[in-house]
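Quick one: structure tokens for this chain, please?
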Amino acid sequence: MQAKQVIDHITDWLDSYCEKSGTKGFVIGVSGGIDSAVTSTLGARTGRPLLCIEMPIHQNSSQVTRAQRHIAFLKDNFSNAGSVEVPLTAVFDGLIHALPAEDDDDGREMALVNTRARLRMTTLYYFAAHHGYLVLGTGNKVEDFGIGFYTKYGDGGVDLSPIADLNKTEVYALGRELGVIDEILQAAPTDGLWGDDRTDEDQIGASYPELEWAMGFTGDEMTLTDRQREVLGIYRRLHKANRHKMEPIPVCLIPEQLRA
């Protein structure tokens, strides 16, 4: 991949989109991961105002530190970059207290994980509306169009997706070219929604390079190794289960004869 040219292409695309939309700049949630680091740096390169939001919710300290250091990197290199910290732990805990108890602990835990992402989306859109900014999405191609590894109306609720046509390995290539700090480049990918150190691979059962392979696989399955079959099965299962996130919202069309 021609990383420098791709960086310029996305930067120009962001700038043009902002111009045509009549908005003033961008807002993004910075998590301490590679996707938000690359996307925020691309947004900063446009020269338009970029507001980075930290939104810790019972956050692992290493994730918070990486996010803070990346924001410091942006401010050191781009005068248009600013930041706000919005601690959401108390908000999240208050919502938990208000919700009724459920017997299904596993289902409740996953619902609350997704609630974290939706609280953050709400926060980002508060700042977007207040300043006239666009919310930058941070999903990559495997997450957004392969396995649907994001929260519907959470981190999937954005105005535009600058890196959604890039595989994770390509995002890392851009990160190295952009000078993203080593702590982020070397950290294992994580969605940061669990308050511990579990990685994306822990949750999914496959690495991003494996998933990229599965996403593009069109060969003879009889030639695959046991691990390749396992990864292909993981990919297909998640793609099918999360298809509802990746397709337009179904609309019930009313037959014309019923309107008469």
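The chain has a mean pLDDT of 95.
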